[in-house]
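RECORD CONTENTS
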Amino acid sequence: MKHVRAGWQGVVRGELALWPAVAVGVIVTGVALAVGSRRGDVRVDIAMASMAAFLFGVLLAFTIVRTRERLVLVQDLVAKSDAALLTLHDAVAVFGDSKRDEVRDLIDIHLTDQIDYRLVDYHRASSSFRALIKSVLGLRPGNPEQDAVYKELVARCFALDSDRSLIEAASGQAMSQLEWTGLLLLLAVLLGLLAVLPGGTPLGSLVAGVMAGALMTLIVLLRKLDLLRWHERVTIWEPTTRLFRSMGRDPYVPREVIDTGRYRPVGRVRVVDYPSLYPIRANKVVTVVDQL
């Protein structure tokens, strides 16, 4: 039951693409062969398929463009925020050891807090972010060098606050249930018509199955874009790993991310397990391991 639930969650989250596409293709091919020539007026079927394909294509293309623009915006803002956090980490070196270590620890806590939650739930890490900003603004410069650095740190905090607001706004603009319902209804109609049109011919049934698999792959792609997981390895996990190492910290990666193949870090890393269901993270367990 646990594996079935994990598999179903993988399909829903867009983590599995091959098997859903193959399964839908096989089903449509089998139905097409079973139905054979027992169908209604082919002219009516063709007209309905044309309308369904047009509506589905227009809606799908518009949605993919919108979700990809949202994804690119979020990824760019996250990259800017990571760069600003690294600047904070290095710049506080001019202050006393206690304040320096406090700010650096808060940066690490904030980064791990962000990773604990999905990117679409970016707002859940707001408390650790506010604690970091409060600590930086609470620094008290005691010489001209610290005063110059403090002014730059304040400017960075304002930029971080602005970028975070934009990320929270963009990440919260996921597809609504209404959009998914309309898209999936059109997909179901189109798949049904694809299964009827071949008239029972083996080649036509095979082509219909391939087309159905391709449509399902596009839906999986859209799901990945909507969850902000498209190309996450090179845009999120690898940069975050480099950021942790630049700060002298071990990278922080959820075990689920490693086990599902979304990202496989190398070297010494902090692997985190979540005993409770999302979004409960209070009882997380962090283990330091060496990844080969």
In short: The mean pLDDT is 90. The chain has two domains: 17-248, 250-292.
